[in-house]
Amino acid sequence: MISRLGSVVAAADHLELTPQTLSGQLASLEAQLGGALFHRANRALQLTDFGHTVFSYADEMFKTAQALSDLVSKPAEDRPLRLAVGICASIHKLIAYRLLKPALELPRTVKLRCQTGDLSQLLKCLHQRSLDVILSDRPPADKDAPQVRCEYVVPDKCVYLWVEQPLNVDIATVVRQFVVTFSGDPVPIHYNYVDTAIDALGAEAYHVFEVSGAATGEMLAKGEVHAEPLAAAH
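Structure (tokenized):
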């Protein structure tokens, strides 16, 4: 406060202290720190080089303390959720993005932190609780099995979710309908494009669409679409 107002008297008045009390506190702080924090210039107090250094650290501490106070004063349901995810370097980034995207679409703010690396490094972080989950391209080995749980599997992509404790959530089942078309085939406007796959043995491209709208039931009855159960994100 002295650095902002330029005098002990003004700072003491703002803090509702006597100038003598504030001067005593300043002298005590300078004695503990081992250096002068202010020097007089044109009848005002200005920070010394040492004072600027101390002030920069103190300012960060006060800002952090205020941010913590603001956070804990919020109702629990309004506080952001934290999710730290380890992603094996062998996992395609697009696959990881699609798996994690539902977490970012939750009505409650999620602070997502991702870390890539080899599985042994990520597993150490999981045991140290600096990671919540690991996305891996293989299931746990026998030596890892007692320590981790493989909760969620995407079989077609060989992606496994590793956690130390079972996920205590009720996972609902969502049925989604898809249709595969060839390049050039007409596609109704209510189809939502999902992905494209290239035939490894030829030049044909297959396009996957999700079917939505009132036509879904009718198309299911005709066998024109395929239903695939997916785990809903919570």
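The chain has three domains: 2-73, 78-163, 173-231. The chain is about 35% helix and 30% strand.
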